[in-house]
Amino acid sequence: FSSSTEQFHDWDLGCHFARAFFYWLHETGQLEQYLKNVREKGYELSVLEETVSKSYGRINIGLSKFIKKNCYAGAYLKDGQQTEDKARKKQAFLKALELKPDYQAARLELAGCYYRSKDYEKCRENLEQIFDDPESIEYRRAASLMANTYYNEKDYPKALEYYNKAWEYSDYYEYKYRVAYQIGNCHYYLKDPEGAKQWYEKFLDCKWEQESMKASADYARKYVGRTDTAIDAKQGKCEKDTKSGN
Predict the structure, then answer these.
(1) Transmembrane residues, as ranges (predicted)?
(2) Could you report how far apart the first and last alpha carbons of the chain are, in Å?
């Protein structure tokens, strides 16, 4: 930790340290007070010492421990997300979880690795740990990915169960129409034409991607408008790509 603003700006790791520093202040409940103090008194080290009621030395010790515990795992997560090498990607997420076992973002990424390699059992094992926390910000993505594993295995009742969970958490999800479309597909395969019609209508009511979902939207319109002929055309429609797990 340096008291020199000029040294900080010249430091290659400055932006990464700044994120960790403000994360530390937030987690210790002192971020708002610190921001208030620096507006009134400036950015001198003494302002930080006054805010957290600790000396420079104790701040360094506390911040170092915090970074090792909470930020190293994030670095491995970022490495895993950026590499294209499948083995390195998986190892990075495993390392992140070794450092922080409850790191749900890394858990979800690891589940995605297993999903893409079609190891659905291991994928589901990891996702189950996310479902233990219904308040998790990863819950919707986990539910959608879990549904995809069952959908790909043609277990439509289980797929529908988890797509419905994903829908419950999709109020502010930009691509919620994808979830609605998959729910409609599940109802179709479960021989529930009314359920399929209801969800295809919800899909059409959403703002879907004109290009990537055009064939699906055309099919949904046909199904909603002419159920008898659309059922025969089911095999020709374009479904959501569940290979990516998104």
Answers:
(1) none
(2) 40
